[in-house]
Amino acid sequence: MKFRTLNRFLGILLSFFLFSCASDLDFNQVNDVKIEPVVVTNLAYFDVLANQFVTNGVEQNVIFDAPTVDIFNGSFFRQRLKKVELFFEMENTINRGYSVDLVFLDRNNQPVHAINLAIPPYLGVENKVTKTEVFENTQLDLLKRTTRIAFTMTMLPGAALSESSIGSLKLRSGVTAYLVVE
Q1: CA-based angle 49:130:106, to the nearest 5?
Q2: Secretion signal: which residues (predicted)?
Q3: pTM, full prediction
Q4: Which residue has better confidence, 54 or 13?
Q5: Which stretches does DSSP call E strand in 28-167?
Q6: Separation CA 166–CA 170 (nearest Å)
Q7: Are 105 and 120 in contact (CB under 8 A)?
Q8: Could you give the domains of the chain?
């Protein structure tokens, strides 16, 4: 009985191969492949405590940092970038307002783009500010020239801070890059 079932199965399988249709394969279609991946990654993060704005009992109204940003300098990205979205989220739990400036610098330290975030003082409720910058076409060309981003945090007038002040100023940011690979 098992032998007959095996013969029947092999007969069906053989007839499938003998009578099936096949068309000519066009291997040149591989030249028409277009892939559009989306890459999401972190850009920058910091968490500055309130007491870091005080040095030897004196308020420091400005904090500055300018890290290198090499993600857009490689030829792979420069040739394939279609669009970039930069997302910024600032959270303030300090009872002072801040102005945060992000200046995009080229390799000669010349500004090519700037973003300002106005951060209100903390008043006991969630205090988040978000901003999304979209770079396409000529704006994207400016972003591709960026080698550093200068972060300047300026503390606005308000209640005095001390070395025992609580709270922090947090920045989270990310990049969503839309690529075209042909």
Answers
A1: 85
A2: 1-22
A3: 0.76
A4: 54
A5: 38-49, 54-55, 58-59, 62-65, 81-92, 98-105, 111-119, 128-135, 148-155
A6: 13
A7: no
A8: 45-179 (2.60.120)
